[in-house]
Amino acid sequence: MAANGKSMLIDTTKCFACRSCQVACKQWNELAAESPVPTNRGTYENPPDLSATQWLLIHFKETERADGSMAWNFARNSCRHCIDAPCKQVTNNADSITVDADTGAVLHNAGTESESFNAIRSACPFDIPRKDADGRSRKCRMCIDRITNGEVPSCAKACPSDAITFGDRDDILAMADARVTAVQGEFPNATVLDRDAVRLLILLGDPASSYKLQTAPA
Fold this sequence. Notes:
The chain is of the alpha+beta class.
């Protein structure tokens, strides 16, 4: 792997849930609309869950902060591209799940899957992969076709608030740590989830329990 590969920082303190990233992911990857069409569930969060054609989802959670104020906390749910991917560890077919040598992106290769999807999904600490109509595992591919051609992932390109930053892992780690320090005046609980275990780094302003987001087991 070239150097330490690539990583992405999702800064929830900058996110205002416009969901441009969701739209960009759908468009670039030519993912079909959800079927059946999601209905109004009393929240702007839509659709309700990831699927074989929904690889990125912004979750909404209304919380009460320590000072009694109310806040909407937004967090991205998608593959975290684990450094030591548990999904890959359970495969019997070396071609079904691969790790890109240059970026570290964890790729579920539709069309080569021969294992049980249930084993792959169960191995994921974040419960990310979803099964398509043919029983194949589908999820975010870190826009591998874009980044190998010198472009950033479509979600990062589309984000109007610069809440998504993509680059060399060492640079992103340094940026994440510096950003935590910078926001601690306003967000004393700021932290980066699973910093050393994943390539998709999520910076939270409030405690993890204040977000509708699954974290890796301790």
